[in-house]
Amino acid sequence: MSATPEPVFEAPWHAQLFALTVHLNEAGHFEWTDWAARFGAMLKQHGLSKELNGGEDYFTAWLATLEGFLAEIKMTDPEAVEEMRAAWEHAYLHTAHGDPVTLDGTFAP
Hints:
Helix content: 55-70%
Distance between the termini: 51 Å
Structural class: mainly alpha
Radius of gyration: 16 Å
Shape: globular
Number of helices: 4
Number of strands: 0
Order of helices and strands: HHHH
């Protein structure tokens, strides 16, 4: 009888963030070496105050790196990213436990 493999990622958003980053690289939006240098610097910065074990702290650093890198190469507008984050936070905080979290339609990019 085979054992069930452990999940590679602790949370679905970790896998989604990883997949998005790989997709953007493969689509030619940036070189992996550029990404790795920025991510390494972010891990070093975050690692000074947190234990980076491949879980939440690690992927929070990953997200911060990707957001900053995409803003640097003009693929995102940091203000729009913050507005979207705030809209999702508001939706999360105002959704009944167990209900799906969705945007209420008031977000306008």
